[in-house]
Amino acid sequence: MDTLRIPMRDYAYLEDVTWDEYEALLKEAGERPIRFTYDDGRLEIMTMSHEHESNKKLIGRLIELLAILLHMPFHSGGSNTMKRKLKRKGLEPDDCYWFQHERRMRGKKRLNLKVDPPPELAVEVDVTRSVLQRLKIYAALKVSEVWRYKDDVLYAYLLQSDGTYKQSACSRVFPFLQLTEMQRFIDKSSTMDEATLALEFMAWVETEIKPRLNGSRKNGKRTK
Question: Which CATH number fits domain 52-219: 2.20.100, 2.40.128, 3.90.1570, 1.20.120?
Answer without folding.
Answer: 3.90.1570
